[in-house]
Structure to design on (908 residues):
């Protein structure tokens, strides 16, 4: 099995972020290449989610720049990020609990729907055609994630592992070039984790989507990622292939602790 | 009038090209394939397979769920005079080795990556397996194995070939004779290697027609194909009768959507083994327990009415006017909506077979107005031997011999069958063939049974399993293990039972609880448990199972023949018996001998009078890895009853 890893698609340079006196991230730089699976790991409070939120435009870093496909930004704006083809999932699911699986995934198509609200409400003219087209795209995602049996089920009634899958489905509905996954396997049992790993690998393989993921489960990270960034107390302490990272002294110290 | 499968396909395609032949739910929509489209698909696949070198008389395995393109491939192979062998899609790799090598198979068509992986894993042991064609390309993009290709690619080359030689396909179809071998089915077999059952076009189609005539099936029937195609039952209902009658076969979206798809399709002709009916009933009962008081009250009241009046109405017997009126009201309020929820609104004929069905279960479906009947047959007889006529369905018989079938009972109680649907032979196994097929054409079913006064066939057990109690109070009494096991399994809380007693002084049983039903029962009683093993060993659960066992004993005590088969001791197993561990056959029948060897310490403890026994067993997971479970199992004694001597 070989896949083509392309050029740098996302380049993060010297990012620093602080909340008042708390330094969440200091001087972080790393890059993500096209078609790769890039993991961000680190102990609790290391700044992993903050990093993702900076890329995603939820937080504005005080220093540094982010370059996406050759365009450099001081800070990102979440709408703009989405338009550029970056989608994400959330650590603590942000789904519409009362809505069906189908509608939740459909909401991921929001940016792609062109006809106005009135036309859509009346379902006339181009709006109907457009809806059918989007429904087809959503159905393909449902098929891909093997959740046909829950198409019409309200998301709130589904077990946690399936909700995570729906969350991924909604992100995929944007047809992203870069997918940011914030702890996609958290709280899952072994079987659910295996399923999720397979879906992440399949997304990467079938659609060539670049994946940036935060994960706690070392087994998962080492198995599926191409390169790993390690953060600790807001600083980057390691960067490289899973093997390099595994043998990095600083990383071992951060995870196992040291005698002070 | 004799014909072949491909000729029937071409006949339908010529007579009514635009009508739907199959439907498949994909991307949320039922997509229809017309007869014309189906015929064209078959032609292209056949041409593609021909170019790959599939020859006349050669075998080809087909592994996967019910998909139109898999059925088309079977037809394509038959068009070329090759013989398709459907294999169980949930069988592990090692189980596929024997059939593939036995029939010297070079070609395989599989559904998806899972099946491809399985075949690649065993390829070292099956060196002649040259071509693996897959239907669904997902995940297979980066596979670079020799001889592996997608069905789409095969179709492309086939299309080109068909354009270049337009007469080829028809000429190939014409070459086949109705007496040529059409398909081979490997029987699971409770002992030894599986045997390949060889059927011709004529044996399968003759029985398919006889069954269709019996129930007056038309081309307007709708069928849902959801059981493994490797099982002859599914093959008859969604392949042989599909082509014989020309009705529509619907393929569900995935295994998990079957109940939803069933409701959407509303089949008119339905077939399921008892465990499916049981599963459906359990779901209904659990949901009714959770329903509001009004609904629950209504349900129980009208089910009472249905039990009184339903079966009689269905059999066309007289029913009191009041009951008739109440039943009509119940139909409006309960039975109709219930049938709709189950997906049985349009069912005209429903069959259950393969195992004995519990009388309560059987009556339940008939009482709410579903024409559920039983049939008797096997892989070797192309299914249809006995069927129950519309007004004579009973839980304890399997129907009357249908057109073209002769039945006689041998001296040892074994049922012998003669019909046009009998197997030609067991593949490469003349010894086994000679054992079951006599020179004058009688097939030994190895079932013990008799024809009752009204001409219905009644089955007791497998001939070889019927044994005798030896020593003890019931010395010499007849022991029919399956009969006892079935009686236990009729209780919703018991999923599986294995009875021992032949050549021993008493009958002992190992039981599997039904995790859903007992789990639900435990939750209602606020009984905490930490999984299957824990739940199975709860004293409360033992109490529950003990009550079931004693009811069975009470029931057996009035049976003149089998009063000596009452159960003395039982235990509840810590793990579910599983086909992956070799404890069940792929059709979910218990392999009694194998289980006795595997759980030898438990058998010793049962007969040795111990109160508990430690046991450790290895289990195989679906991905091929194995682990182990261990537990200390309790053993309970049960009350037995004095045999009630009939008019003694």
């Amino acid at each position: 099995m070989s896949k083509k890893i392309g050029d740098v698609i996302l380049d993060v340079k010297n990012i620093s972020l602080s909340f008042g006196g708390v330094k969440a991230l200091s001087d972080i730089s790393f890059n993500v290449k096209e078609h790769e699976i890039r993991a961000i790991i680190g102990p609790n409070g290391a700044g992993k989610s903050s990093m993702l939120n900076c890329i995603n435009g939820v937080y504005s870093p005080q220093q540094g720049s982010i370059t996406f496909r050759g365009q450099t930004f001081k800070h990102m704006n979440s709408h703009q990020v989405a338009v550029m083809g970056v989608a994400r999932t959330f650590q603590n699911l942000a789904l519409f609990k009362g809505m069906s699986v189908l509608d939740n995934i459909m909401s991921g198509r929001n940016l792609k729907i062109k006809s106005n609200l009135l036309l859509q409400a009346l379902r006339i003219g181009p709006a109907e055609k457009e809806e059918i087209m989007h429904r087809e795209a959503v159905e393909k995602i449902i098929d891909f994630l093997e959740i046909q049996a829950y198409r019409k089920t309200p998301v709130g009634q589904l077990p946690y592992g399936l909700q995570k899958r729906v969350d991924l489905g909604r992100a995929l509905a944007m047809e992203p070039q870069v997918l940011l996954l914030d702890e996609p396997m958290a709280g899952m049992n072994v079987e659910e984790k295996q399923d999720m790993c397979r879906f992440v690998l399949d997304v990467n393989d079938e659609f060539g989507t670049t994946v940036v993921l935060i994960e706690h489960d070392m087994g998962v990270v080492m198995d599926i990622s191409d390169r790993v960034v390690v953060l600790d107390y807001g600083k980057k302490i390691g960067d490289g292939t899973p093997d390099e990272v595994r043998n990095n002294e600083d990383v071992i110290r951060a995870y196992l602790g040291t005698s002070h | 009038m004799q014909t072949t499968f491909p000729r029937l396909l071409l006949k339908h395609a010529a007579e009514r090209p635009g009508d739907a032949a199959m439907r498949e739910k994909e991307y949320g929509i039922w997509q229809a394939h017309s007869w014309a489209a189906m015929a064209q698909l078959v032609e292209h696949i056949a041409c593609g397979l021909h170019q790959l070198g599939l020859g006349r008389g050669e075998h080809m395995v087909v592994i996967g769920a019910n998909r139109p393109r898999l059925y088309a491939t079977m037809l394509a192979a038959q068009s070329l005079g090759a013989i398709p062998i459907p294999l169980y899609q949930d069988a592990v790799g090692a189980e596929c080795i024997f059939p593939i090598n036995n029939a010297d198979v070079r070609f395989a068509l599989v559904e998806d990556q899972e099946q491809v992986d399985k075949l690649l894993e065993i390829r070292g042991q099956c060196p002649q397996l040259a071509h693996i064609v897959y239907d669904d390309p997902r995940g297979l993009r980066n596979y670079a194995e020799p001889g592996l290709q997608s069905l789409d690619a095969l179709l492309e080359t086939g299309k080109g070939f068909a354009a270049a030689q337009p007469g080829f396909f028809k000429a190939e179809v014409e070459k086949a004779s109705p007496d040529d071998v059409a398909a081979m089915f490997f029987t699971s077999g409770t002992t030894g290697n599986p045997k390949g059952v060889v059927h011709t076009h004529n044996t399968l189609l003759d029985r398919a027609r006889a069954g269709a005539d019996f129930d007056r099936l038309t081309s307007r029937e709708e069928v849902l194909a959801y059981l493994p195609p490797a099982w002859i039952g599914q093959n008859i209902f969604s392949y042989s009768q599909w082509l014989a009658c020309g009705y529509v076969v619907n393929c569900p979206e995935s295994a998990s959507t079957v109940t939803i798809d069933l409701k959407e399709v509303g089949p008119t002709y339905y077939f399921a083994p008892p465990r499916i009916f049981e599963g459906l009933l359990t779901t209904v009962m659990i949901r009714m327990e959770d329903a509001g008081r009004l609904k629950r009250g209504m349900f129980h009241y009208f089910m009472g009415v249905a039990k009184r009046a339903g079966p009689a109405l269905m059999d066309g017997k007289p029913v009191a006017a009041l009951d008739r009126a109440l039943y009509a009201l119940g139909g409006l309020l309960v039975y109709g909506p219930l049938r709709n929820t189950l997906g049985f609104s349009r069912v005209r004929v429903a069959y259950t077979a393969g195992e004995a069905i519990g009388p309560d279960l059987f009556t339940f479906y008939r009482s709410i107005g579903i024409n559920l009947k039983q049939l008797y047959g096997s892989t070797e007889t192309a299914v249809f031997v006995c069927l129950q006529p519309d007004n004579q369905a009973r839980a304890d018989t399997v129907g009357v011999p249908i057109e073209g079938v002769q039945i006689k009972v041998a001296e040892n109680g074994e049922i012998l069958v003669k019909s046009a649907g009998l197997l030609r032979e067991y593949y490469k196994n003349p010894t086994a063939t000679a054992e079951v097929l006599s020179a004058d054409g009688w097939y030994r079913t190895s079932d013990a049974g008799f024809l009752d006064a009204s001409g219905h066939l009644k089955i007791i057990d497998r001939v070889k399993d019927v044994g005798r109690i030896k020593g003890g109070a019931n010395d010499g009494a007849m022991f029919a293990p399956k009969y006892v096991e079935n009686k236990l399994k009729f209780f919703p809380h018991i999923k599986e039972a294995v009875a021992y007693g032949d050549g021993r002084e008493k009958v002992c049983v190992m039981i599997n609880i039904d995790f859903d039903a007992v789990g639900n029962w435990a939750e209602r009683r606020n009984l905490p448990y930490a999984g299957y093993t824990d739940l199975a060993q709860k004293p409360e659960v033992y109490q529950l199972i003990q009550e079931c066992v004693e009811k069975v004993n009470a029931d057996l005590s009035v049976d003149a023949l089998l009063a000596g088969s009452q159960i003395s001791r039982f235990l509840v197993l810590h793990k579910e018996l599983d086909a992956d561990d070799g404890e069940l056959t792929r059709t979910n029948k218990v392999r009694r001998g194998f289980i006795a060897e595997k759980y030898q310490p438990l058998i010793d403890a049962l007969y040795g009078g111990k109160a508990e026994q430690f046991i450790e067993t290895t289990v195989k997971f679906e991905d091929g890895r194995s682990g182990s479970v261990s537990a200390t199992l309790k053993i309970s004694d049960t009350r037995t009853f004095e045999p009630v001597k009939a008019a003694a």
User: Anything to note?
Assistant: Residues 293-314 of chain B form the longest helix (22 residues).
